[in-house]
Amino acid sequence: MGRKMIKSIASSTLSRSLPSANGLILDELEDDSVNLIKAEASLDYLCNLSPHRYEALYAKMLPESILGETFLEKYIDHSDAVTVIDEKRTYVVRAPAKHPIYENFRVKAFKALLTSSSSDEQLTALGELLYQCHYSYGACGLGSDGTDRLVRLVQEMQHGKPSSSEDGTLYGAKITGGGSGGTVCVIGRNCLRSSQQILEIQHRYKGGTGYLPFIFEGSSPGSGKFGYLRIRRPLSRT
User: Fold this and answer.
1) Share of the chain above pLDDT 90, in %
2) Is residue 68 within 8 Å of 87, Cβ to Cβ?
3) What is the DSSP string of 118-173?
4) Domain range summary for the chain, segments of one domain joined by +
5) How far apart are CA 122 and CA 212, in angstroms?
6) pTM of the model
7) What Gene Ontology biological process does one annotation of this record name (predicted)?
8) Rounded Cα gap, residues 168 and 157, in angstroms
9) In terms of DSSP bridges, do strands 170-176 and 90-92 run parallel, antiparallel, or are they unpaired?
């Protein structure tokens, strides 16, 4: 829905149909700006829209939510062959639209930080990106109580008095799991203290829920040990 609305706003800007309160007058736009808006009017994926463009032109114009019937009356469809809009249901718009835009930026920032020299500042920034990813995902309604609890426990461990008085070892966490959910990734220093804190989080979680989380650690040898499948396409017949 958000992508359809953003494309509609961009198209309206090009046709000079936006209200003057938006501060955009097509005649005053430079050629480069016009080209940008043209690209946004045919946007294929929200992640291809930069955060600063989203904030400058679209964020304030997207509703927090919209009734399915209202959306269909204005936009006809949402260009998604997999899902169907229920006219009687209210859909959140702004948070799910914002998530892929900022998530793409966070992923690129995370990748860039990994190439920088190891330091406390680097780990703090990496951890902050994980937290932002987690809460942005949750704002879309895709989180879970269990993973939220684990992330809170990591924060409590990170900012607790013992950790604050010593060199911190845990820096951030986020929900993950490759679509299967139920898993939290934690970033920290490779040291004994980090392992001890992870075990403490595990036991605190069990104390609060009755369930003992499983800890995945280390690195799998992957295809080097388990092998791989080679998929060949059949030769076309002529």
Assistant:
1) 61
2) yes
3) P-HHHHHHHHHHHHHHHHHHHHTT---HHHHHHHHHHHHHHHSHHHHHS---EEEE
4) 2-99, 144-209
5) 31
6) 0.81
7) galactose metabolic process
8) 9
9) unpaired
